[in-house]
Amino acid sequence: MIKSNIIIFNLLLSLISFSQVPNKISFQTVVRNSLGKLVISKNIGVRLSVLKTTATGTSVYVEQHTKTSNTNGLLTLEVGSGSVVTGTFSTIDWSQGPYFLKTEMDVNGGTNYTISGVTEFVSVPYAMNSKTSDAVKTVANGANVGDMNYWNGTTWVPLYKGIQGQTLTFCDGKPTWAFGGVCPGTISSLNCSSVTNSGTLLANSVSGGVTSFISYTGGNGGVHNGQVVTSTGVTGLTATLTSGTFANGNDTLSYAITGKPNTSGIANFAINIGGKACVMALTVNKAPNGPNISDIDGNIYKTVYIGTQQWMGENLKTAKYNDGTLIPNVSDNSQWSNLTTGAWAYYNNVASNNSKYGKLYNWYAVSPITNGNKNICPAGWHVPTDTEWTVLISYLGGEAIAGGKMREVGTINWSWNTPETSNSSLFTGLPGGELSSKGFYVGIGNSGLWWSSSQASTYDAYYLYLDSYSLSKNSNYKYYGRSVRCLKD
Description:
Number of strands: 35
Largest sheet: 5 strands, antiparallel
Distance between the termini: 58 Å
Shape: rod-shaped
Radius of gyration: 38 Å
Mean pLDDT: 85
Low-confidence stretches: 1-22, 123-138
Number of helices: 6
């Protein structure tokens, strides 16, 4: 069954003498169905009951009407002029109040009524019967033909007439004239899932210059009051939207993010503006520089946080697995391409390259599948999978731009740099080159290559390739010698 949703705007006395008891009281209401849509140009069945003393008191008068709503869903009738069910309206002693009007409706025009509301008769009937009334109250006056009054919870106030093209609707608990039935300062949808950000949030760091942008649709040009929302999940942050005006159509809202997040993770903000609500989820990263770590040989490495991952900020230099087992150093170039077991080499067999670029390892030394289930990285760390390299690249914006954020700035180690090079991730990728087929060393100064632990086939494995212009993931022979970066478990 569709229930009506009634908005009572006014109870107006008919034009009778102030010395008489009222014979009729004008009654207007806007009728909406259970979906909130106006019921327009349709016969409505109405039953009105005058209750004494309380909103659930005894009925002293009941009548029925069948009336047609207008094109704005407005229904107008007169209490006291309907088909009487019980009682006599003209004999009601208004001085013995208070009295209440109970409204029931059938939006299908029948008598299958559903209660729509109960409202108290205000001072008008008592004023009309001033000889027997103890208190005379007043009702707010309008200023134009077509003005109406509504009860704001404390008193009756005027609702001034709208203009052509507006319809009467309910906004913030009050009747309002609005275009298209849409309340001023409202929107049709709010999309927190598409939030974009300028700046980065870091755990235990004061946020400054971070702004989050949320798109919306269906703005109607109305004014909004802004809002201030505190974060949950990761606490310590505040999102502030200053007051302003919605666009006529689609646009974005700009929230300034301030505060000091207590940890890394997801900070959630319950956004509620323009009649729509959603949850804005922002990532709080760990501080860029993590604690130093050491390997089994005592080599010390800086670490960096990039998104949700913690990486070594330098290439691996160890000559042992982390259980102390030696990894063979194979310096005979003719042997290198025939290996199917773990090995390492210095680039060009020059030991001084180790301090800057680290060692070059074949994939057999990197993968637990081929090295006897050993770990070449420090305890608690591992060689990243191909998927984990993808996570890093995606966080930095994809292959097209991530390379510049990962490449060391300057030409001390790189033969040249592009303008996009920033090393903003602090990954500090170096061009350590590789040991390729038949023991040829190539690429130092021009390219950096890092193994993943993921194999592509019996003979190939995946690796990351970085040069002065590009970044990509590829696969190639497992016996090639390449650099290793370790990732925190």
